[in-house]
Amino acid sequence: MRLVYAGTGSFAMAAFEALMNSLHRPVALITQPDKPGSSPRSSSRLVGLGLKGPALKKGVPIHQPQSINDPEGIALLEKLAPDLLVVAAYGQILSQKALSIPRLGCINLHASLLPRHRGASPIAHAILAGDTETGVSVIRMTAGLDAGEVIGMVKTAIEPDETAEALENRLSIMAAQIALVAVEEIARDTVKGIAQDPVLVTKAPRLKKEAGNIDWKKSTTEILRQIRAMQPWPTAFTFRERLGSSPNRLQIIKATPALNLDNNSPPGTLYSTESKSQDLIVKTGDGALNLLLIQPAGKSPMSAPDYLRGNPIAIGDRLCMVFEA
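Above: the chain's sequence. Below: its structure in token form.
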């Protein structure tokens, strides 16, 4: 079977490597154009650098069209003439014209239990929603966003402290395993599809930078989910407001629930505890958080004691959203 793989993000890598070592080795890789200056910590879906290395090692031709749906992208697909197109975290929605080119259609590896969390950021949205379970779905692609028949699914629990980055790494391995099964079933013409229940559909739109902005009026549980869901990008962030100075941006990388020792102050209020290891506490809408690992603008991540040595808490100091007065 003549197979072409379309993927960009790190979620797509394990499945691509697994297929390259299978009986149905891809004859070509289609990935997004490189973005100069992209950081390894930037959104894993936005750079095409990750899959190119394995492709080059195996001698798989690489194509990086600006759009898979413009005339050049369509001409490329027609020239490659795939029997099957396997898509994973590619970063572009395929048009009906593109979907109609492969002889056996197109399948997509999606990092959620469809129809839950359709869209570009299913892993982060699963954590934000407080889901205890997620997985990988394989669907036959249609013109609707992640709306095709499900032809395979694997499930896994979401660990209580798991970040989106860690969960994506686990799901990518699961995607590799289920991709091999799905491709083989299609090759044998034994695959069966199950229609998605439209009543159960939820959306997982692409994250924007402001999704990391913490509203301290939210509950402790909600903020902890946000901190986990925003890694590795855009990372949860806030602004420290100090009397007589401009707000300073802080990224919050790790935190844990804390005993609320200040019931009278509003959410966002900062205070520290005097102990062998000085804690940095912030009020939330229903309790308090102990900030364990933070990153001031322009500096490396640091522990709360290290941060407090150069930035002691003063009366009236608080954390706020960028849009607050």
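The chain has two domains: 3-200, 209-320.
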